[in-house]
Amino acid sequence: MSTSALVRWFCHVYSLLLYAYPRQFRLQYGGEMQQVFRDRCSYVVRTQGRRRLFRFAIHSAADWMTTTFREGTDTLVEAAPRAVRHLRSVWVTGRKRAPRGFVAEWAMTILIYLFATTTLVQAYVVPTGSMETTLRIGDHMLVDRMAYADPGSVGRHLLPYREIRRGDIVAFTYPEDVRETYVKRVMGLPGDHIRLINKQVMRNGRLLVEPYTQHISAVREPYRDDFPIAPDAFTTPRGRAMFEHDVRNGEVVVPPGKLFVMGDNRDNSADSRSWGFVPREYVVGKPLVVYWSYDAPTEELQEWSVGHVLDVTLHFFSKTRWDRMFLVPRSQAAQETGGTQ
Amino acid sequence: MTKTQSPQELLPLTPPVFHILLALVDEERHGYGIMQDVARQTDDALQLGPGTLYGCLKRMLAAGLVEESEERPDPELDDQRRRYYRMTPLGQSVVRAEAQRLANAVVAARSKRLLERAKPNLAGGKA
Q: Residue A67: its chain B contacts at CB < 8 A?
């Protein structure tokens, strides 16, 4: 995403978040707050760069949380005598009419909180090393859930949406176990022909040069490195189905509505090679920013234990990878070389 | 609750309110101008988010410390949608009283040798 698109996206999200403020406050100041936010975003980008922009966004999010709460409480306090009077009149006369400002404002605030955490972004921890070194074990990041969510024909023009491209990093629901979320790189779109020749990917007849990958083993393993030959012991039933239906002339052909994904840590990644395609509708979103990176083993990241809390408390400063803070995982297109084999 | 109130009753001010008033001492500004000036005053230590800024302005308007300005001080950069804020006489006396209160606190701190003598070098900030 270009920087100006990023600023636009932030402003867009911010304008939605403004709805969490009490109605009166929003009508009075919402427009100006939006303008101030936009001005500050452009200023930060111009003078301090992109990384500071994320810091400002996080700062604004914290500001939003505390001030929505504060303004909401204010409204509540102002509305309380009226509400009490109202309740008394309901009690006496038996009339029923919900006191606005009392219930409605808080319902709106809570709704927006829920909306923000379920629709806009999702927090995610990288539990395994299959995307090393692009993403590392213990990277805590926010996933942008709007990026690839199909908003329909009208929303397409209003929302920041784009098609998935080759080389994009995507978060998706793991097809073998829908409780888990995985992050991998998209290698094949529907219709693409894919095979590996001695660890190198050939897509649609062209060998790819992929600067973002890592190979940790010098050994050439036929299943992993000269894919697809034949299913091996680790191929899951979904993987076997792919071998059965979607391999033609020694190449995987990605069917409509599916994606072929692989980890950047090619020699140590369980990906589409072993468990098949990712259905398009399983894609959750796009990694937005690493907000915290902590050096801890896989098991501890999947479930918080007492030991892990203690570990974080004691080693927060030494085990946090500060250089990864506010890192933006980028999609990167592989270079296609003309050479075919 | 406007001009009859004595400035002393409103002290101490919260840091955002104090710095917003400081920003309005020399000229009237719009919201973004206030935000930038506060960041400049405090060397980026106090960054007002939009919610804090307008929440404070709302309370300050209610307390009569600031008012909306009808004039457009900067026709070059004018934008119809922006509202400009200016300090009221009450705001002026409140910010002065608060500055005096802080100055007294500094004198007290200096008498206990917490600060350097004479003019402390504030630029570094770290002792």
A: 49, 51-52, 55
